[in-house]
Amino acid sequence: RLKRIYAFIGCKYCFYSPLASGERRFFMKKFRILSVILAVLTAFAAGFGCKVTDNKGDNGETGRTALQFYCPDGAPALAAAGLFGNETLGTDDITMNYHVISADKIASTVLKTTKKADVAILPVNAAAKICGTGEDYVLTSVLTHGNLFIVSDTEITINDLVGKVVGVIGRGLVPDMTLKAVLTKNNVEYVEANTAESGKVALTYYESGEELMPAMKQNKIKIGLLPEPAATKIVTKLKTAYTYRLDLGELYDGGYPQAVMLVKKSVMEAHPDFYGKLTAALQASVTWVNTVENASAAVDAVNAKLDEGVVGTLDTFVTAEVIGRCSVKYASASSMKTKIKGYLSAIGQNLPSDAFFYGE
User: Fold this and answer.
1) Mean pLDDT in the chain?
2) What's the CA gap between 61 and 358, in Å, rounded?
3) pTM of the predicted protein model
4) Are 98 and 322 in contact (CB under 8 A)?
C-alpha cells in the first residue's frame, strides 16, 4: 500500500516513509515548500487565464468589449439621449458605457496622451484641432447645427447691433468666433470694447452665462449672445422682457456644424459592424429627442448619465420648444465635409485632413 502511495504522488520519500525522524522532518519540509510553490503557480495560471479568455463588459456580460462614450452636458448630450438606454447598440460584441461630463473637460478625452474616449461628441473646432489628422479618431457625423441666439428686450436686426454693446460668453470660443463670422458675412464691423462705438458693434466678454445674466438683469447691458438650452434657463431667471431676437444659425447659411461625433479608428477596425449600428441608433435618437412628448424623458436620460461630481445644466425648463432651438439633426461626415471646412475657415481655424472625415 505504501508503495502504491509513493507511486501515486511521484515521490520516493514522503512523511509516511519509515525513515529516521531527522530525515522525515527534512523531506516533510521539502514537501510543504513544493506544495506552496504549486499552489502559487496554480493561482497565477488561473488569474492569467481569466484575463485572456473572459473579456467582460461593465455590465458583466462575457465576450463583449467595453467601450467608453463621452459627451458634454447640454445640447450635444440631448442629441445622444436616445442612446443612453442602449448599452449594446444591437451588436454581439460591444458594451457601451456612457458618460456626460462638463463641457470644459470634453477635449481631454481625445487627447493623444489619454485617448480614453472610444466615442466622443465635441465642438467641431476642438475636434478638428486635436484630431484633425485622422490618425487616431475620425469624424463620423454632425449632431447639432447651431444653438446660439442674440437675446434682447427689443426687436432688432443684425444691423441694429451697430453702435451697441453685446455681451458674449467666452473670448475666442465658439460663440465669440461664430458671432464674428456672422458679423463679417453681413459686412458689419465690430470691436472688442466695453463701451459703445459709433459705426461698430462693441463686443464685451463674460466667462459664462451666469456672469452675463446679472449684468442684463441690472440693465448694465441690454443685448447678450447665449447658447441654447442655457439661454432659456437664464432668460427664465431674468423674469423680464428678454427673449430670442436673432438666431445665428439662420444668419449663417441656415445653420453651421457645431457638435460632431468622433470614433476611435482602432474601434472601427476591430468591430466592422459598429459604425452601421451606431449610425442607426443615432438617427433613432435624434428622431426620439425631437418628438414633443419625449422632452422630459430626454432630460432624465442625460441627467442619469452624469459622471460623479458633474452638476447638470438641464432641468424642467427644457421643453420640446427649447430642444427645437438646439438644432439637433443627424448628418454624415461626408455630406458635411464642405460645410465643415467652410465654417472652420470662417472662424479662422486651420483645416483638417481629408482622412479626418469618415467615408472619404
Assistant:
1) 85
2) 30
3) 0.81
4) no
